[in-house]
Amino acid sequence: MINQEQVLEALKKVKFPGLSRDIVSFGFVHDVRISGGDVSFTIRFQTENPNVGAQIARDAESAVKALPGAGAVNVQLDIAARAQMPSPAAGGEHGVLEGVKYKIAVASGKGGVGKSTVSTNLALALRALGYTVGMLDADIYGPSQQMMLGIHGRPQIDEIDEKIVPMENHGVKTMSLGLITDPDTPVIWRGPMVMKALDQFLTDVKWGELDFMIIDLPPGTGDAQLTMTQKVPLTGVVVVTTPQDVALIDARKGLAMFRKVNVPVLGIIENMSYYICRHCGEREEIFGHGGGRKTADMLGVPFLGEVPLDPSVVVGGDSGEPIVVLQPDSPAAQAFRELARQVVEQVESGTAGHTHGPDDRDHHQGHAHTH
């Protein structure tokens, strides 16, 4: 006799079109019922491409029919069109961060490009514009927001609703695994534990009403990123890169992933773009020049600016006084403020993630960092 475990195992061979992850690990399979050899189940998800559903249903039916002893297979599709969702965002589960107006993910294709630095300073630049802001540090293996925002101690539990109260500094509500684990102990977790921790940050933290939530994603295009795109109705994503070719290749992969899962890409920001010598004032392009802008043009997304390589950015991040707070008039702080302005412009105007042609890109290419 066929059992539920065998059905789910068979369905793990069915990939979401264009992605390497299967429909079971995405949590799309529901209500598996078995009567004799007959099997029925529902596949439930959100998409803007109705053709995807038919393909998944065909693949799922074939996978289950291949089981020994399988009889009739009945696949029910339950697809919500993202374009009809009340939120301006791409998708996500009902009720997750519902008090937050705009959920902005900050991502990178590879580590070491300053994604957490960009996340922190974007959050503070939005706060300086008068918005209420939260920071969700989803980088489970390398949490750093507690240090960058200068937060110490452990979060408390609200006695009434038993939710975790986020900690706050510089006016930004923050939750990070770094606040509840020993900083010297590595996080040696398999995927399911990471997903459970992210779930808790989304549903068991008392975020309250916020204008913006900045979500500092781990680098790459793995489970954590895909889970966040499915669980959180993201308004958009900012992709961070550096000028080197290897970073740009990975940035393109990351950008392609977000497009495949229908998350609007707000644009590319190039970090560590150039260095200004403090002695002679000369601009040195240590890692090359113009790669971020060329990549943005090639992929038809806004170029959100260049952040210079400045030792004060590192000092500020290590001391809990990020550059936007530490030296608000510096070129790096100006670049982060311009990034915040462009994010606000896109989300408030409803143009987040719109593809740009060569004629209408210029007004998105912030020049707060002009040469």
What can you tell me about this protein's structure?
With 371 residues, the protein is an alpha/beta fold. It folds into 2 domains: 14-84, GMP Synthetase, Chain A, domain 3; 100-364, P-loop containing nucleotide triphosphate hydrolases (Rossmann fold). The protein is 32% helix and 21% strand. It has helices at 4-11, 51-65, 115-128, 145-148, 191-203, 223-231, 245-260, 291-299, 311-319, 323-326, 331-349; strands spanning 29-35, 38-47, 73-81, 100-107, 133-137, 156-157, 164-165, 167-169, 172-176, 210-216, 236-241, 265-270, 275-276, 283-284, 303-306. It has an 8-stranded mixed beta sheet with strand order 8-9-5-10-4-11-12-15, with helices on both faces. A hairpin with a 2-residue loop joins strand 1 and strand 2. The longest helix has 19 residues, at 331-349. Mean pLDDT is 82; it is low at 82-90 and 356-371.
